[in-house]
Amino acid sequence: MSGSGNFKKVCAKYGAHWDPGITRLRVLNNDDWICKMEICLYGDRRIDPDIEFIGPGVIPEQYGSVDHIVALSVPGTPGHVWSNVRAAHRSCNREASGLVWLTHQLARDWLDEHAEETTHVFAIQIGVVKTEGSPQAPPYRVVARPMEALGGLGGTLFPPYRAEVSNHPPSA
Q1: Average pLDDT of span 54-67
Q2: In sequence order, what are the residues at sequence separation of 6 or more whose Cβ sits closer than 8 angstroms to the Cβ of residue 23?
Q3: Which end of the chain has fewer CB atoms at under 10 Å, N or C?
Q4: d(C-alpha 84, C-alpha 165), whole Å
Q5: What is the model's pLDDT at position 25?
Q6: What pLDDT sits at residue 69?
Q7: What CA–CA distances, in Å, run from 19 to 53, 106, 163, 167?
Q8: Domain coordinates of the chain in residue numbers?
């Protein structure tokens, strides 16, 4: 999605909050043109501001895009607000499509509020390793097991914390 008008349509479709002041360029500038995805496919994470949008269906892989930490289509999403957006390469954003990254307190709060007793949640810690001549591989280790193993919803899976939803860019 290249324009904020597309985000407006998606937010309207799913009933999510939309802040018209959050644009692709403002998000990229706010994040200093650095890909903020947990697993960036590019070593230096830098997003090149000179890569241009060619047209629908012809978007360069390293083009800068806006990622929503909790997707706009997920029930209860904070929406298109500053606390839920970050800069990402187009390809990194696409690779993570449909995942809710629990490294962000916002995502953990969302899970605690919307999980049901039948939800089975595993939290994993992911890293990236590469040995000489091999492709990058994401090793992982399980750091939390399904909620029922932790006593169901009697408590929360993650430490309590309430993220503030903000309609303004974070201050430096």
Answers
A1: 80
A2: 3, 4
A3: C
A4: 8
A5: 94
A6: 87
A7: 23, 17, 17, 7
A8: 4-98, 115-155
> Which residue, chain included where needed, has tokens 């709060």?
109
Residue 62, both tokens = 């390293």
Tokens of 163: 């993220």
pTM, two decimal places = 0.59
Q: Is the pLDDT of residue 79 over 90?
A: yes
- DSSP structure string for 3-21: SHHHHHHHHHHHT--B-TT
The confidence score (pLDDT) of residue 109 equals 73
**Which pair of structure tokens corresponds to residue 159?**
């430490």
The Cα 136–Cα 132 span in angstroms is 10
Which is nearest to 97 in space by CA: 76, 123, 70?
Answer: 70
Place of tokens 């230096």: 44
Q: Hey, which of 84-93, 105-114, 119-128 has the most confident mean pLDDT?
A: 84-93
3-state percent breakdown (helix, strand, coil) of the chain, nearest 5: 25, 15, 60
Rounded to a whole number, what is the distance in angstroms from the first to the last CA of the chain? 27
Calculate ∠ Cα 169-170-171, nearest 5°: 115
Give the whole-angstrom CA distance, residue 75 versus residue 77: 6
CA dist 44 and 67 (Å) reads 18
Distance CA 124, CA 167 (A): 30
Q: pLDDT, tens digit, for every residue of 155-172?
A: 444 444 334 444 455 555
